Amino acid sequence: MKRWIGGALILLMIGVLVLRGREADDRFERQIYSMGTLVTLTLRAPDRSPEALAALVSEVESELNRYQQRWSVRGSGALAQLNATLEESTTVPVPATLLPLLRKAKTVAEDSAGTFDPGLGRLVQVWGFDDAEHFRDAPPDRAVLTVAKRLPHRLTETTLQDGRLQAEKPGLMLDFGAIAKGAAVGAALDVLKQAGIEHAMVNAGGDLQVIGHAEGRPWRIAVRHPRPPADAPRLLVGIELQDGEAVFTSGDYERYFEFEGRRYHHLLDPRSGEPATGAQSSTVIHDDPALADALATALFVGGVEQFDALVDQFALEFAMLVDAEGRVHATAGFMDRADWLADVEFAPDADAQ
Ligand code: ADP
Ligand code: MG
């Protein structure tokens, strides 16, 4: 009898937990490790069986892995092969799988006044930010850097015609690290949309895109604080997202080393070949995740000086920059939507754009 009561109680408790779980939300969440980061899929599809959801997750995983393979700088993927050809030669046919994103990246490079350029693969490598195994604790030798800077490192100095990319000299190495993650997040979400999912978020380590909404209200996300005060949450600003919006952030806190009191991070200024110095982080909200990714990098590198010009050039409604002093610059559209989660100092022109 005692045992029976115990069993019934446990069943009751489980029932309550399950009910509460259902009531709180009917979200399904899974994490996938791909593209060098933890990707969290969150979706609402209460009518799907666990088997159907598992199959969907593995479809998304395959798509992400395809992107990882395709856009890796080295290895056997399409971009790596293109890079291998460019090492010896000036002209290379661009495979169809690379062409659309290469075109987009080239356009952004040409319109972003030197701040975004995926041609700087060789420099990323010399700085040791291409691979965890190459990670450095001091800047590279000046002579090595000088040699790398003399090699071609601008996609803007190439021509793309009839599916062929032509560089001025051999030695160009393309690195799509600042745009491929955006394209991959978009592709992952496309897989979900194709399967009839209407409400989902794909979050690749803080860079994300949503469709639909979360339990009858907009998806709400938070952007990381680039210098969180001690004992405070690591969050800077909360934002509610509309169907289709992507939010991408570039920050100097992601991959860096410190040497003689200076921070050297993985966001390089293509004009100097050195880590950019004008910002701590930058965030772009846009319907095109690849553009959001690329433009977050561009805004970071452009810093305060080029913020307004880049915002105008790309007609960005929602963009924010935390400058090197930690002051926030943002477009009026961003300010309207921002729910600040930390004490922030605004640049004098923060809402006057
Ligand atoms: P993350 O991917 O770390 O969130 P980004 O999207 O800004 O950050 O991409 C950074 C990566 O892009 C670097 O690791 C490097 O491979 C490449 N990169 C660095 N600086 C630039 C730049 N100015 N333009 C284009 N690509 C860059
Ligand atoms: Mg980027």
Q: Which descriptors would you attach to this protein?
A:
alpha+beta, nine-stranded mixed beta sheet, 19 strands, 9 helices, T-fold, 353 residues, binds magnesium ion, binds adenosine-5'-diphosphate
Task: Outline the structure in words.
With 353 residues, the chain is an alpha+beta fold. The chain has a domain of 186 residues: ApbE-like domains (T-fold). It is built from nine helices and 19 strands. The strands form five sheets. A nine-stranded mixed β-sheet has the order 1-2-6-7-10-15-16-17-19. The chain has a three-stranded antiparallel β-sheet with strand order 3-5-4, covered by helices on one side. Helix 7 crosses helix 8. The longest helix has 25 residues. The chain starts with a helix and ends in a 7-residue tail after the last strand. Bound molecules: adenosine-5'-diphosphate and magnesium ion. The site of magnesium ion has 7 residues, from strand 10 and helix 8.
Which helices and strands, and how do they pair?
Blueprint: H1 2-24, E1 27-34, E2 37-44, H2 50-71, H3 78-88, E3 91-93, H4 99-111, H5 121-126, H6 142-150, E4 159-161, E5 164-166, H7 180-194, E6 200-204, E7 207-211, E8 219-224, E9 235-241, E10 246-251, E11 256-259, E12 262-265, E13 268-269, E14 274-275, E15 279-286, H8 289-313, E16 318-323, E17 327-330, H9 332-337, E18 339-340, E19 345-346
Parallel strand pairs: 17-19
Antiparallel strand pairs: 1-2, 2-6, 3-5, 4-5, 6-7, 7-10, 8-9, 9-18, 10-15, 11-12, 13-14, 15-16, 16-17
Bound molecules: adenosine-5'-diphosphate and magnesium ion (MG).
